[in-house]
Amino acid sequence: MKYVIIGNSIAAAGCIEGIRKIDNENEIIVISQEPYHIYSRPLISYWLSGKINEEKIYYRPWDYYEKYRVKPILGRKVERVDFDEKKLYLDNNDEIYYDKLLIATGGKPFIPNILGLAKKNVFTFIKFDDVKAIDKAICPGAKAVVVGGGLSGLKAAEALIKRGCEVTVIELAERILGSILDDEGAKLVQNELEKYGIKFVLKNSVIEILGEERVEKIKLQTQEEIPADLVIFSIGVVPNVDIFKDTPLKINRGIIVNTKMETNIPDVYAAGDVVEAFDLILGEKRVIPILPNAYIQGEVAGINMAGGDFEYEGSFPINSIGFFDIHMMTGGIVNPKEDCEVLKRLERDRKIYRKICLKDGRILGFIFINSFDRTGMIVDLMKNKVDVSGFKERLLLDNFGFLDLPKEVRREKIWRV
Amino acid sequence: MLVKTKKRIYPKEEVCIGCHLCEIYCVLAHSGTRDLIKAFKKKDRPSPRVIVEEKEGVHVTFALQCRHCDDPLCIKACITGAMHRDENTGAILCDEEKCVGCWSCILVCPYGAIRRGENKKVASKCDLCIEKGDPICVQNCPNSALELVEV
């Protein structure tokens, strides 16, 4: 039995650890385009800001591959997969046979097709090599333009401010963090970020990058020009499925999988940012590119690849993210379109915001800014579709806890493990 | 390679009197001193890793700490690899050197058993006092409201 994993990030780790729950014998091969030991992508902004050194970016200890009996093939690209022959072809013409394959190729940055992209100092913000290149290109006072005011764009902006750059964030929508916040929350966060010197241009986009060899200016949709020494595109990620075009692998936006993380091809599994998995709140399949999902899906795939029988229960987007000294946790649907009950608590002076969206007594989503202790309990109530109508007002309390739950719910939860 | 926790602490809300001695002894156990006075005089003394639940107007209290789950979400959500399982005892521990305080573990822990530690820099949770033998909170509860169960 030969296990092969394409990708070397969080879903790969989940898969390796899932396989080893059942099978301690057979070899696992991990192939990655990047030359690095398994590292954590969310930590690239921490590295760029100087909060952590290189040693801390690695997600698992140095002896990880050895201990889990993994043969890493790093710095090699898989050119194509022959699903009939069960073979992978690498960019150095090596051929690798598999019995069970996991596709964990993650996401790739989306870059709009605009003029001037080929100039120097145009970056993306997803890999370790991206921040290494950005690190070389910046100096205190450098003018940086970040395109995209989402999670990773703002982490990039924060890191650059900490490194002494001048930062402007360009966002197409009318608010930052559009996917995880509402207008109220976004305003609160934007005000804080502006205090630290980040400038925002909303409802606008970059149409051209100007300069000789390197970036000198960017041109906006409104024809306005902004001087820039570097530009970072951080608009979003799309499933990285290029090598599977023109193969029988079923792909919608992401690779389609069932609850066992199996694709439509026998012995081929997929997990992480490259798949469409079940959203428990929306009740449909979609790409939910968050780290815990990648690990859990990888683990489910690994257990099943090794002959176990385990199902992925689905999930919904949840995020924990902070900038400077403002921190937020969000989950599920936070801008409900249908009629549903919304509970809010806003304390502007303390910069605290709690919002809960409910439907039929079930929590659909939440936003907690600067008040997020024990949020996992709320996520658990969402996941288990617990009827909270009897104590819904208490969900807005900073110190929400088990005593706010009915006795039987509380006892069942604490004694369930 | 399948290690599970061997011990778990369960609270008895019928007999807990909310005295907070478990918290006090927890702070002592993680302060690096054996002297209660010294431990509490420390400028950045550790925060308690056991949470005493109490609410105004509610007559119930109980103490709760990490469940050391068999299938721990905190480890799966951790972005650094800091949250890990101790290979010998099966206890779930946070490597404070690696933790960057992203609080993903707090986002997913269904028990709300992980806290932001002292100075709100790294995650802080019960470690079952694995370096000291039996959990000190259990030993020092005057009412035996905490029960250590071998699982």
**Whole-Å distance between the termini of chain A?**
34 Å
The strand order across the widest sheet of chain B is 1-8
Strand order across the largest sheet of chain A: 3-2-1-7-19
Biggest interface, chains and residue tallies: A-B, 48 and 38 residues
- Percent helix range of chain B: 10-25%
Outline of chain B, from the CA principal axes? globular
Structural class designation of chain B: alpha+beta
Low-confidence stretches of chain A: none
Offer a quick outline of the entry:
The complex is a heterodimer of chains A (417) and B (151). Chain A has 417 residues and is an alpha/beta fold.
Structure description:
The complex is a heterodimer of chains A (417) and B (151). Chain A is of the alpha/beta class. Chain A has three domains: 157 residues, 3-Layer(bba) Sandwich (FAD/NAD(P)-binding domain); 112 residues, FAD/NAD(P)-binding domain (3-Layer(bba) Sandwich); 91 residues, FAD/NAD-linked reductase, C-terminal dimerisation domain (Enolase-like, domain 1, 2-Layer Sandwich), CATH 3.30.390.30. Helix content of chain A is 21%, strand content 28%. Chain A has nine helices and 26 strands. Chain A has a five-stranded parallel beta sheet with strand order 3-2-1-7-19. In chain A, helix 5 links the parallel strand 10 and strand 11. Chain A is globular and about 60 Å long. In chain A, 45% of the residues are buried. Chain B is α+β, with helices and mostly antiparallel strands. Chain B has one domain: Alpha-Beta Plaits, CATH 3.30.70. Helices cover 19% and strands 17% of the residues of chain B. Chain B contains five helices and eight strands. Chain B has a two-stranded antiparallel sheet. The longest helix of chain B has 9 residues. The two termini of chain B are 18 Å apart. The mean pLDDT of chain B is 93. At the A-B interface, helix 7, strand 22, strand 23, helix 8 and helix 9 of A face strand 1, helix 3, helix 4 and strand 6 of B.
